[in-house]
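All the exercises in this workshop are built on plain-text protein records. Sequence and backbone structure share a record, each on its own labelled line. The question running through the whole workshop is how a given chain folds. The record below serves as our worked example for the rest of this section.
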Amino acid sequence: ISKGPGNSKSSKSTAVPPGPPVYLDLVYIPNHSNSKNVDVEFFKRVRSSYYVVSGNDSAAEEPSRAVLDSLLEGKAQWESNMQVTLIPTHDSEVMREWYQETHEKQQDLNIMVLASSSTVVMQDESFPACKIEL
């Protein structure tokens, strides 16, 4: 029996190994919200009041729809229904579609998606911003 790469089930690794949950106030979803690094296990274990979702590159599939769906699936397994706020750094087609298609489930899970109309101007450059109070 060959044990080369791809022939063993142990070759598959998860981004976050199973274990007890960790509670945080604010989490920046790593690597532009790429599904290679963030899955359901991440959201089952890394529990936060606020998640910042970056990514504005549709060609690179950022943010990943799979990551956004993983948030819903992971949060559904929490014991409590604490409020979670999702903070996108960019307005993207993926985020808008996901928001509209899963809005009812977001409400059931007590997830709010923050939209910001505030703008910060620094050194002749402007960008969207939001205020977070912990």
Confidence is low (pLDDT under 50) at residues 2-14.
